[in-house]
Write a structure and sequence with these properties.
The protein is of the alpha/beta class and 213 residues long. It has a single domain, classed as Rossmann fold (3-Layer(aba) Sandwich), CATH 3.40.50.300. The chain has eight helices and five strands; from the N terminus they run E-H-E-H-H-E-H-H-E-H-H-E-H. Strands 2-3-1-4-5 form a five-stranded parallel sheet, sandwiched between helices. Helix 3 runs parallel beside helix 5, helix 4 runs antiparallel to helix 5 (119-130) and helix 4 packs across helix 7 (167-183). It is globular and about 45 Å long. Bound molecules: adenosine-5'-triphosphate (ATP) and magnesium ion (MG). Residues 22-23, 101 line the site of magnesium ion.
């Protein structure tokens, strides 16, 4: 839930492992909501502002193989702290529908289940980073790791530092997302990422409209 004193906008997050279809679905939702005349702001994590995008470059650069998990966690948190206050909260205050590619669920999945940092520590760090802001709903695109890897290979996408990690890492992250989503109640909607793009877009749009009404 968003904070009670939160402004009038709505905050939705698209999440899941690399190649699950986040960007594709965020774009569908953006186009449909914009066509209906809604004010839509799209953004991503890590990133969304000049400072946070600079931190993103540091986090994802394949060069820094020596980066320790705690450094990675705090860089993500630093980027989020700036992103929330500089971009997301002002957009919500202006009444926008904010669509964000990844947010707090990714921290628990990647740094918790992937990197084995305690969930308690992650909760503390996330609370500082978000200032208590939570998405109204996070759409989790659940996908088999092998299918996601095949999609990435088909795109011939150059791997960043995290994507260069092995299948075991991504299997833990994917399983972490499932566990977290099941604990997330109505704040997380799990979608089968192997459905067609159009079917997924209908599911996402239906939920957004339900929550906007
Ligand atoms: N439902 C789908 N069925 C089949 N292919 C899909 C589907 N959704 C997306 N794809 C394809 O899978 C690839 C990855 O999709 P996309 O870039 O949206 O994923 P992503 O989650 O944003 O990945 P990344 O984390 O790397 O940014 C693209 O080639 C896209 O066209
Ligand atoms: Mg993407």
């Amino acid at each position: 839930m968003q904070k009670e004193e939160n402004p009038p906008g709505f905050f939705f997050v698209f999440d899941g492992i690399d190649g699950c279809g986040k960007s594709t679905q965020l774009d569908y939702a953006k186009r449909r909501l914009t066509a209906e005349g809604r004010k839509v702001v799209t953004t991503r994590e890590p990133g969304g502002t000049v400072i946070a995008e600079t931190i993103r470059t540091l986090i994802l650069s394949p060069e820094y193989v020596e980066m320790v998990p705690e450094c990675e966690l705090l860089l993500y948190a630093a980027a989020r702290a700036q992103h929330v206050r500089e971009k997301i909260l002002p957009a919500l205050a202006a009444g926008a529908v904010v669509l964000c590619d990844r947010f707090d669920l990714a921290t628990y999945a990647y740094q918790g289940f992937g990197r084995h940092i305690s969930l308690d520590l992650l909760r503390t760090v996330n609370t500082a980073a978000t200032g208590g802001l939570s998405p109204r709903c996070t759409f989790l695109f659940d996908i088999d790791v092998d299918v996601a890897f095949d999609r990435m290979a088909a795109m011939k996408k150059k791997h960043d530092r995290l994507e260069s990690d092995n299948r075991d890492f991504f299997s833990r992250v994917a399983e972490g997302y499932r566990v977290l989503a099941q604990q997330g109640g109505d704040r997380v909607m799990i979608l089968d990422a192997e459905l067609s793009k159009e079917e997924l877009a209908e599911g996402v749009y239906g939920k957004i409209v339900e929550l906007l009404e």
